[in-house]
Amino acid sequence: MSKSDLASFDLTAPAPKITLRLQKRPASSSQPAAAAKRQKVVNVPPQVDPDDPELHITEHYTDASRFARFKVEEVSADSHERIKYDTVSPLFSKDYTFLAQKADHRMRPLWVCDDGRIILEAFSSLAHQAQDFLITIAEPVSRPARVHEFKLTAYSLYAAVSVGMETDTILGVLERFSKVTLPERVKNFIKECTMAYGKAKLVLKDNRYYIESTYPDVLKRLLTNPDISKARVIRDDTIPGRFDGKPSNGQPGGAKIDGAANSSDASEGLGAVITLDRLDDEEDDLDDESEFVHSFEIDKSQVEEVKKHCIGMDYPLMEEYDFRHDALTPNLDIDLSPMTTIRDYQEKSLSKMFGGGGGRARSGIIVLPTGAGKTLVGITAACTVKKSTLVLCTNALSVDQWTKEFRNWSTLKEGQIAKFTSDEKHKFVGDAGIVVSTYTMISHSGERSAATARMIEWINSVEWGLMILDEVHVVPANVFRRVLTTVSAHTKLGLTATLVREDDKIEDLNFLIGPKLFEANWMDLAQRGHIAKVEATEIWCGMTSEFYQEYRESQHAGKRRLLTVMNPSKFQACQYLIKAREAAGDKIIVFSDNVYALEYYAKKMDKPFIYGKTSNLERSAVLANFRRMGPGSFQTVFLSKVGDTSLDLPEATCLIQISSMFGSRRQEAQRMGRILRAKRRNEEGFRSRFYTLITTDTEEVGFSAKRKTFLIDQGYEYKVIPNLEQLIPAEERPKLHLSSWKEQQELLDILKQTDVDVDGDEAVNVPGEIAKPKFGASKAAAKKQEEAAKKLKKQQREEAAAKKSKMHKLFRGWRGD
SUPFAM superfamilies annotated for this entry (predicted)? Predict the structure, then answer.
């Protein structure tokens, strides 16, 4: 059989890159006796000929050191004949028919595949227990109604160990739930990723950093690294057998960084470097050395370098804060209000942060959908740590909301909480308190006013017990990640509804903040009434021939995007939906990234609108009027992308999206979050409504398909209305704006003369405001900006490739790159 007789498919799955080579089905099922058995080769070794016609081959192109050794397994001819061959199945998934099912497989809910994928039958009676386990050890990929898909990654297993899961526990529970015997490759991957995880911790105790472990051999190995050895601190007051480092004579002892030490004498010097802390103070038997925590101190200025070297040695440090024994950081008198009630999933998420016991807090990220109470989770964490807390938000409105929620849900006294924004610059009263600010205020490196500079200097001088990062997915941006290097915080808690970005920087959060501690299931919370049920609809709006001709002929990307948003059919659909939903009693948010369209739509329909240049005072007034019920209140408000995140509008029950930021999955999910809060309306079968208006035969169609993927993976379904005739009754069309050809032509003439920026988000020159539009200058500027954007993207790709090449093998495994 020649190579041309093999069908080759390159799959782009979330799991590692996999190439399937499937042997075509034999013409006859009869086989010679000598061929009664066939060999199936997993991870083909070098000595095996991949073109051997007797082999059914599956090749895994991955880092060989991360997975099981090559293995040849026997597959009988009868089993081979049971494999279903067709021309379609190989295009969609790998052939898993070689996985042998257990006798009682119908009673088990999981399919564990040898490429790290785990399929959960959500209709199984054991699905709930299995799902809680899978959320801990694996990354959710897709969770529709009946079947959920997860994948094992190095990061997800790191997170599992960080919350107390052990290797044997992970393997044992997987085996118990799995319909098939666990593939050896999966077992070996789990063992390799978890055996070293959690064996070394970075602990901040009494404002000193310690690397501690219950395994002395691990510390000895770390000290063989010359950079780690040089960063260790040897104190004169350190007594072998004690962890606290108190001097034997009661006097403060000196300390020095062991810069002259070398790795060769690390073992000999352990008696003076590593101290012991007994886990059970009442136990008198000292024979079992595992009862002790071994540790050595490292220099505070070298912490980041030490963390990097530990990762390079396959011992990533778990970060914990011993807040109950931190006597140097002032305590904050704060508790939850007696009227506050914590929901079960909020309690479960916090247990991942504080579940280690002993008064320690883990740094990490909690993912909850908008409306599920992320703010209360952060407040509860602050009440648990009881130390000074810094809360960072995305904008000034979020600062006001966090401040209000702290006062509502906790026992904070007046003066214990302060705001740091462009309008307010206050410190809290006393030794400990809460400061709420924005990422921009902390990270801005330009010129500052004297008051702002003093406030920044004070914030950087305080040792914060807890730093809460709201909408943590923005942190990997180069501007905002500067915050983590300037502010000193003992532990960090990231909160977000959408742990996704369109670049590859989302994985940086594992180093900047910590592992993902908990992620909730959106549909499960909706079914239980904690967030609103949503009906999502996509409405296709065709362009008129004149608009479409201008769209095709325009060479300006921003102008084309403006034409798709200003499509008369889209305007009519929006106007009709607002009229219909207001009559039904809904409170409506209309989103538009395009500021020109936002203003045009709002003014034509006589509705209030908010965008970037709207003052904070005006924003607050508009939103307050929107939140009110009854005569005189606003039923509809138009928002630009400033309303994407951290906007608390629990009254909103309907959202209409007329333009968006390209194919951003995060933005789609964040906008749906504006209407996810559990509603006060309790009619039977009531649902919030999410409408997306798409101009057909334009780039919006492709962008929309990508934007929907995150929500579809969460289990949401989109209903499609393919034309306006199915949405708007014929007798209603003439009553809508832009229904006549004359109105449409007048709008098109204005748009032809309207100068827009390169992104098409804002009109630069509008007829009537200038004497003559400068299209030539605009095109030249647009071309220059587009070239600069291409150059920047190329540079980012090169940096990403360089970063990946330098990334340690521990964090390259099973990413699917």
Answer: P-loop containing nucleoside triphosphate hydrolases
